Amino acid sequence: MVTISGKARLAGVLGWPVGHSKSPLLHNFWFERHGLDGVYVPLPVAPEDLAPVMRALPRMGFLGCNVTLPHKAAMLDLVDAVDPLAAAIGAVNTVLVGDAGSLTGYNTDGLGFLAHLDGCAPDWRAATRRVVLLGAGGAARALAFTFLAAGIHELALVNRTPERAAALVARLGDQNDAAVLALPWAERHRALEGADLLVNTTSLGMVGQPALDLDLAALPATAIVADIVYTPLSTPLLSEARRRGHRTVDGLGMLLHQAVPGFTHWGGTRPVVDEATRRLMLAPPVAEPKAG
Ligand code: ATR
To answer: What ligand 1 atom has the least distance to the C-alpha of 164?
Structure first.
Protein backbone atom coordinates (compact mmCIF):
# COMPACT_ATOMS: atom_id res chain seq x y z
CA MET A 1 0.00 0.00 0.00
CA VAL A 2 1.50 3.29 -1.14
CA THR A 3 1.15 6.19 1.25
CA ILE A 4 1.67 9.75 0.10
CA SER A 5 2.18 12.38 2.78
CA GLY A 6 1.68 16.13 2.57
CA LYS A 7 5.41 16.45 1.96
CA ALA A 8 5.53 14.03 -0.96
CA ARG A 9 7.96 14.64 -3.81
CA LEU A 10 5.98 15.56 -6.92
CA ALA A 11 6.68 14.80 -10.57
CA GLY A 12 4.67 13.81 -13.64
CA VAL A 13 4.47 13.39 -17.39
CA LEU A 14 3.00 16.01 -19.70
CA GLY A 15 1.38 14.90 -22.92
CA TRP A 16 -1.74 15.27 -25.04
CA PRO A 17 -3.05 12.63 -24.84
CA VAL A 18 -1.08 11.04 -22.03
CA GLY A 19 -3.26 8.05 -21.12
CA HIS A 20 -1.02 5.57 -22.96
CA SER A 21 2.11 6.60 -21.04
CA LYS A 22 3.85 3.94 -18.97
CA SER A 23 5.93 6.55 -17.13
CA PRO A 24 3.58 6.78 -14.09
CA LEU A 25 3.84 3.01 -13.64
CA LEU A 26 7.62 3.12 -13.80
CA HIS A 27 8.30 6.15 -11.58
CA ASN A 28 5.78 5.12 -8.92
CA PHE A 29 7.34 1.65 -8.88
CA TRP A 30 10.70 3.29 -8.18
CA PHE A 31 9.25 5.59 -5.49
CA GLU A 32 7.79 2.55 -3.76
CA ARG A 33 10.83 0.34 -4.23
CA HIS A 34 13.14 2.96 -2.73
CA GLY A 35 10.76 3.63 0.16
CA LEU A 36 10.35 7.26 -0.90
CA ASP A 37 7.48 9.57 -0.12
CA GLY A 38 6.69 10.64 -3.67
CA VAL A 39 4.16 10.48 -6.44
CA TYR A 40 4.31 10.72 -10.23
CA VAL A 41 1.13 11.69 -12.06
CA PRO A 42 -0.09 11.86 -15.65
CA LEU A 43 -0.64 15.48 -16.68
CA PRO A 44 -2.90 15.76 -19.74
CA VAL A 45 -2.11 19.24 -21.06
CA ALA A 46 -3.39 20.66 -24.36
CA PRO A 47 -0.81 22.51 -26.47
CA GLU A 48 -2.43 25.91 -25.85
CA ASP A 49 -2.14 25.38 -22.08
CA LEU A 50 1.48 24.28 -22.06
CA ALA A 51 3.07 27.67 -21.31
CA PRO A 52 0.93 28.54 -18.24
CA VAL A 53 1.23 24.97 -16.95
CA MET A 54 5.04 25.13 -17.14
CA ARG A 55 5.08 28.44 -15.27
CA ALA A 56 2.85 26.95 -12.58
CA LEU A 57 4.73 23.66 -12.23
CA PRO A 58 7.50 24.85 -9.87
CA ARG A 59 5.02 27.04 -7.98
CA MET A 60 2.98 23.93 -7.25
CA GLY A 61 6.00 22.26 -5.79
CA PHE A 62 6.83 19.93 -8.68
CA LEU A 63 10.46 18.84 -8.86
CA GLY A 64 10.24 18.19 -12.58
CA CYS A 65 8.44 16.36 -15.33
CA ASN A 66 8.83 14.20 -18.37
CA VAL A 67 7.50 15.43 -21.68
CA THR A 68 5.90 13.36 -24.40
CA LEU A 69 4.09 13.99 -27.69
CA PRO A 70 3.26 16.56 -28.92
CA HIS A 71 5.17 18.87 -26.55
CA LYS A 72 8.81 17.85 -26.98
CA ALA A 73 9.78 20.61 -29.44
CA ALA A 74 7.60 23.36 -27.94
CA MET A 75 9.24 22.79 -24.57
CA LEU A 76 12.53 24.22 -25.87
CA ASP A 77 11.03 27.72 -25.68
CA LEU A 78 9.27 27.27 -22.36
CA VAL A 79 12.20 26.42 -20.11
CA ASP A 80 14.81 28.82 -18.70
CA ALA A 81 17.77 26.81 -19.95
CA VAL A 82 18.24 24.01 -22.46
CA ASP A 83 20.98 21.43 -22.20
CA PRO A 84 23.17 21.58 -25.36
CA LEU A 85 22.33 18.03 -26.44
CA ALA A 86 18.57 18.72 -26.19
CA ALA A 87 19.07 21.98 -28.11
CA ALA A 88 20.92 20.13 -30.87
CA ILE A 89 18.27 17.39 -31.05
CA GLY A 90 15.51 20.00 -31.00
CA ALA A 91 13.40 18.20 -28.40
CA VAL A 92 13.08 18.08 -24.62
CA ASN A 93 11.82 14.95 -22.83
CA THR A 94 12.82 15.80 -19.25
CA VAL A 95 12.49 19.08 -17.33
CA LEU A 96 14.18 19.51 -13.97
CA VAL A 97 13.18 22.23 -11.51
CA GLY A 98 16.16 23.95 -9.88
CA ASP A 99 16.43 25.47 -6.40
CA ALA A 100 15.02 28.86 -7.36
CA GLY A 101 12.21 27.33 -9.41
CA SER A 102 14.15 27.55 -12.68
CA LEU A 103 13.38 25.02 -15.43
CA THR A 104 16.11 23.20 -17.36
CA GLY A 105 15.26 21.01 -20.34
CA TYR A 106 17.14 17.84 -21.27
CA ASN A 107 16.81 15.08 -23.82
CA THR A 108 17.66 11.71 -22.32
CA ASP A 109 16.38 9.45 -25.13
CA GLY A 110 19.74 8.91 -26.82
CA LEU A 111 21.59 8.64 -23.51
CA GLY A 112 19.01 6.06 -22.40
CA PHE A 113 19.72 4.03 -25.50
CA LEU A 114 23.48 4.23 -24.91
CA ALA A 115 23.11 3.27 -21.24
CA HIS A 116 21.19 0.16 -22.30
CA LEU A 117 23.81 -0.61 -24.96
CA ASP A 118 26.54 -0.22 -22.32
CA GLY A 119 24.73 -2.82 -20.23
CA CYS A 120 24.12 -5.30 -23.09
CA ALA A 121 27.41 -4.92 -24.97
CA PRO A 122 29.99 -3.22 -22.70
CA ASP A 123 32.66 -3.34 -25.42
CA TRP A 124 30.62 -1.51 -28.06
CA ARG A 125 32.35 1.87 -27.62
CA ALA A 126 35.79 0.49 -28.38
CA ALA A 127 34.50 -1.75 -31.18
CA THR A 128 32.18 0.64 -33.03
CA ARG A 129 33.33 2.81 -35.93
CA ARG A 130 30.42 2.66 -38.33
CA VAL A 131 26.78 2.92 -37.21
CA VAL A 132 23.83 2.45 -39.57
CA LEU A 133 20.59 4.08 -38.44
CA LEU A 134 17.33 3.17 -40.17
CA GLY A 135 14.86 6.05 -39.99
CA ALA A 136 15.06 9.81 -39.74
CA GLY A 137 12.28 10.73 -37.28
CA GLY A 138 12.52 12.07 -33.75
CA ALA A 139 14.09 8.94 -32.32
CA ALA A 140 16.72 8.82 -35.09
CA ARG A 141 17.56 12.49 -34.43
CA ALA A 142 18.11 11.85 -30.72
CA LEU A 143 20.26 8.79 -31.41
CA ALA A 144 22.28 10.42 -34.20
CA PHE A 145 23.33 13.39 -32.06
CA THR A 146 24.05 11.18 -29.08
CA PHE A 147 26.17 8.74 -31.11
CA LEU A 148 28.21 11.57 -32.58
CA ALA A 149 28.69 13.09 -29.13
CA ALA A 150 29.90 9.64 -28.01
CA GLY A 151 32.61 9.79 -30.68
CA ILE A 152 31.67 7.29 -33.40
CA HIS A 153 33.51 7.75 -36.71
CA GLU A 154 30.86 7.11 -39.33
CA LEU A 155 27.11 7.39 -39.33
CA ALA A 156 24.92 6.24 -42.23
CA LEU A 157 21.28 7.30 -42.20
CA VAL A 158 18.91 5.27 -44.32
CA ASN A 159 15.34 6.51 -44.66
CA ARG A 160 12.35 5.87 -46.90
CA THR A 161 11.85 9.61 -47.50
CA PRO A 162 15.26 10.82 -48.70
CA GLU A 163 14.55 14.49 -47.92
CA ARG A 164 14.14 13.69 -44.22
CA ALA A 165 17.48 11.86 -44.07
CA ALA A 166 19.18 14.70 -45.97
CA ALA A 167 17.67 17.27 -43.58
CA LEU A 168 18.98 15.33 -40.60
CA VAL A 169 22.46 15.09 -42.13
CA ALA A 170 22.41 18.87 -42.66
CA ARG A 171 21.28 19.40 -39.10
CA LEU A 172 24.04 17.16 -37.76
CA GLY A 173 26.61 19.36 -39.53
CA ASP A 174 30.28 18.81 -38.75
CA GLN A 175 30.30 17.02 -35.45
CA ASN A 176 33.54 15.61 -34.14
CA ASP A 177 34.90 15.12 -37.69
CA ALA A 178 32.64 12.10 -38.14
CA ALA A 179 31.51 11.13 -41.64
CA VAL A 180 27.73 11.40 -41.82
CA LEU A 181 25.86 10.32 -44.93
CA ALA A 182 22.30 9.78 -46.09
CA LEU A 183 21.56 6.69 -48.17
CA PRO A 184 18.44 5.82 -50.18
CA TRP A 185 16.02 3.27 -48.70
CA ALA A 186 16.71 0.93 -51.64
CA GLU A 187 20.36 0.81 -50.53
CA ARG A 188 19.55 -0.40 -47.02
CA HIS A 189 20.75 -3.97 -47.60
CA ARG A 190 24.12 -2.87 -48.98
CA ALA A 191 24.47 -0.11 -46.39
CA LEU A 192 25.14 -2.83 -43.82
CA GLU A 193 28.59 -3.57 -45.26
CA GLY A 194 31.25 -2.76 -42.69
CA ALA A 195 28.70 -1.73 -40.04
CA ASP A 196 29.55 -2.40 -36.40
CA LEU A 197 26.12 -1.43 -35.13
CA LEU A 198 22.71 -1.41 -36.82
CA VAL A 199 19.79 0.38 -35.17
CA ASN A 200 16.20 0.35 -36.39
CA THR A 201 14.40 3.55 -35.37
CA THR A 202 11.52 3.12 -37.81
CA SER A 203 8.16 1.80 -36.69
CA LEU A 204 8.56 -1.27 -38.92
CA GLY A 205 8.29 -4.48 -36.92
CA MET A 206 6.00 -2.94 -34.32
CA VAL A 207 2.71 -4.70 -33.57
CA GLY A 208 0.27 -3.73 -36.33
CA GLN A 209 3.05 -2.60 -38.70
CA PRO A 210 4.73 -4.57 -41.48
CA ALA A 211 8.04 -6.25 -40.64
CA LEU A 212 11.23 -4.51 -41.69
CA ASP A 213 12.29 -5.95 -45.02
CA LEU A 214 16.05 -6.12 -44.61
CA ASP A 215 18.58 -8.68 -45.84
CA LEU A 216 21.30 -8.99 -43.18
CA ALA A 217 23.70 -10.90 -45.46
CA ALA A 218 26.12 -7.96 -45.82
CA LEU A 219 26.30 -7.28 -42.09
CA PRO A 220 29.61 -8.35 -40.49
CA ALA A 221 29.18 -11.27 -38.06
CA THR A 222 30.51 -9.17 -35.18
CA ALA A 223 27.93 -6.39 -35.64
CA ILE A 224 25.40 -5.62 -32.92
CA VAL A 225 21.76 -5.27 -33.98
CA ALA A 226 19.41 -3.03 -32.00
CA ASP A 227 15.76 -2.09 -32.33
CA ILE A 228 13.97 0.71 -30.53
CA VAL A 229 10.62 -1.03 -31.12
CA TYR A 230 9.65 -2.92 -27.95
CA THR A 231 6.21 -4.23 -28.85
CA PRO A 232 7.00 -7.04 -29.50
CA LEU A 233 10.18 -7.28 -27.48
CA SER A 234 11.69 -9.60 -30.04
CA THR A 235 10.96 -7.94 -33.38
CA PRO A 236 11.37 -9.89 -36.63
CA LEU A 237 14.65 -7.97 -37.12
CA LEU A 238 16.04 -9.03 -33.74
CA SER A 239 14.89 -12.65 -34.20
CA GLU A 240 16.59 -12.88 -37.58
CA ALA A 241 19.75 -11.21 -36.24
CA ARG A 242 19.87 -13.66 -33.33
CA ARG A 243 19.37 -16.57 -35.70
CA ARG A 244 22.40 -15.35 -37.62
CA GLY A 245 24.45 -15.17 -34.44
CA HIS A 246 24.51 -11.39 -33.93
CA ARG A 247 24.33 -9.85 -30.50
CA THR A 248 21.01 -8.05 -30.15
CA VAL A 249 19.69 -5.17 -28.07
CA ASP A 250 15.94 -4.70 -27.55
CA GLY A 251 13.98 -1.46 -27.36
CA LEU A 252 12.74 -1.73 -23.81
CA GLY A 253 16.04 -0.68 -22.27
CA MET A 254 15.93 2.74 -23.91
CA LEU A 255 12.45 3.35 -22.51
CA LEU A 256 13.64 2.47 -19.01
CA HIS A 257 17.03 4.16 -19.03
CA GLN A 258 15.76 7.46 -20.46
CA ALA A 259 13.77 7.77 -17.21
CA VAL A 260 16.80 7.43 -14.92
CA PRO A 261 18.07 11.08 -14.95
CA GLY A 262 14.60 12.45 -14.15
CA PHE A 263 13.97 10.04 -11.29
CA THR A 264 17.46 10.64 -9.92
CA HIS A 265 16.46 14.31 -9.58
CA TRP A 266 12.94 14.00 -8.15
CA GLY A 267 13.58 10.82 -6.21
CA GLY A 268 16.95 11.99 -4.91
CA THR A 269 18.42 8.57 -5.61
CA ARG A 270 19.55 6.75 -8.75
CA PRO A 271 17.09 3.96 -9.61
CA VAL A 272 18.30 0.57 -10.80
CA VAL A 273 17.04 -0.81 -14.09
CA ASP A 274 16.81 -4.56 -13.56
CA GLU A 275 14.74 -7.57 -14.56
CA ALA A 276 11.90 -6.65 -12.17
CA THR A 277 11.69 -3.21 -13.79
CA ARG A 278 11.58 -4.79 -17.24
CA ARG A 279 8.84 -7.24 -16.18
CA LEU A 280 6.77 -4.38 -14.78
CA MET A 281 6.80 -2.58 -18.11
CA LEU A 282 5.92 -5.73 -20.05
CA ALA A 283 2.91 -6.61 -17.88
CA PRO A 284 -0.40 -6.09 -19.68
CA PRO A 285 -2.23 -2.92 -18.61
CA VAL A 286 -4.84 -3.29 -15.88
CA ALA A 287 -8.23 -3.78 -17.54
CA GLU A 288 -10.70 -0.95 -17.09
CA PRO A 289 -13.99 -1.97 -15.41
CA LYS A 290 -16.75 -2.39 -17.95
CA ALA A 291 -19.60 0.11 -17.79
CA GLY A 292 -23.11 -1.16 -17.06
P1 ATR B 1 9.70 8.82 -34.23
O2 ATR B 1 9.64 10.24 -33.79
O3 ATR B 1 9.20 7.83 -33.22
O4 ATR B 1 11.03 8.44 -34.79
P5 ATR B 1 8.46 9.37 -36.80
O6 ATR B 1 8.98 10.75 -36.79
O7 ATR B 1 7.04 9.15 -37.21
O8 ATR B 1 8.58 8.68 -35.38
O9 ATR B 1 9.42 8.46 -37.70
C10 ATR B 1 9.08 7.21 -38.09
C11 ATR B 1 10.20 6.63 -38.96
O12 ATR B 1 9.77 5.35 -39.46
C13 ATR B 1 10.51 7.49 -40.17
O14 ATR B 1 11.88 7.39 -40.47
C15 ATR B 1 9.67 6.82 -41.26
O16 ATR B 1 10.14 7.02 -42.57
P17 ATR B 1 9.69 8.34 -43.41
O18 ATR B 1 10.54 9.48 -42.93
O19 ATR B 1 9.92 7.98 -44.80
O20 ATR B 1 8.22 8.55 -43.07
C21 ATR B 1 9.83 5.38 -40.88
N22 ATR B 1 8.78 4.53 -41.46
C23 ATR B 1 7.50 4.42 -41.05
N24 ATR B 1 6.83 3.53 -41.82
C25 ATR B 1 7.70 3.10 -42.76
C26 ATR B 1 7.61 2.18 -43.87
N27 ATR B 1 6.47 1.52 -44.15
N28 ATR B 1 8.73 1.97 -44.59
C29 ATR B 1 9.89 2.60 -44.33
N30 ATR B 1 10.03 3.50 -43.31
C31 ATR B 1 8.95 3.73 -42.53
So the answer is: 18
